[in-house]
Amino acid sequence: MRKVALGLALALIAVGCGQATEKDIDEGITLWGEVSDSYLDVLEANQTNPKKALEEGQKFIDTDEKFQRLAKIGNKRGTQAQQDRFAKAIEATVPAIQARFEKIQEAMVAAGDEASANAIVDQWQSLLEKMGGE
Q1: What are the backbone dihedrals phi and psi of residue 50, each rounded to the nearest 5 degrees, phi first?
Q2: In a domain, 91, yes or no
Q3: Are 127 and 67 spatial neighbours (Cβ–Cβ below 8 Å)?
Q4: What total of structural domains would you count in the chain?
Q5: Which residue, among 42, 45, 27, 48, has the nearest Cα to 123 in the 3D structure?
Q6: In which domain, by residue range, is 64 found?
Q7: What is the pLDDT tens value at each position of the chain, 134 positions in all?
Q8: What is the rounded distance in angstroms from the CA atom of residue 60 to the CA atom of residue 78?
Q9: CA-based max dimension of the chain
Q10: Coil, helix or strand for 19?
Q11: Within a domain: 3
């Protein structure tokens, strides 16, 4: 089973165009936690039906209002100090998110669908790329 690389969030969100304000950084930090939790909630709610989990996860990425706001913030370039502050805040959340993500993957494998358990890694990567303005 493939593992998710949450550290990529730090690099991806720190790039972009436009100028980030302190308010943008504060909102981005708050939204990161909310978006991550909401996305993982969607996957957890459907983890015994991995294909549905993938579908619902993609719907979340495509339609969630908070995710869309976070993606817009990710398109702005912050100062080095702002990027460092944001990265430090995100880094603090990585262990908990990683643990939840791995439990979801394990449940999907237990449901007999390792392919979907691996596919959510790609979906998570897509979510991170959209947040980083890729």
Answers
A1: -55, -40
A2: yes
A3: yes
A4: 1
A5: 42
A6: 8-131
A7: 666 655 545 544 554 556 888 898 899 899 999 999 999 999 999 999 999 999 999 999 899 999 888 888 877 878 888 888 888 888 888 889 889 989 999 999 999 998 988 888 888 888 777 766 44
A8: 26
A9: 46
A10: strand
A11: no
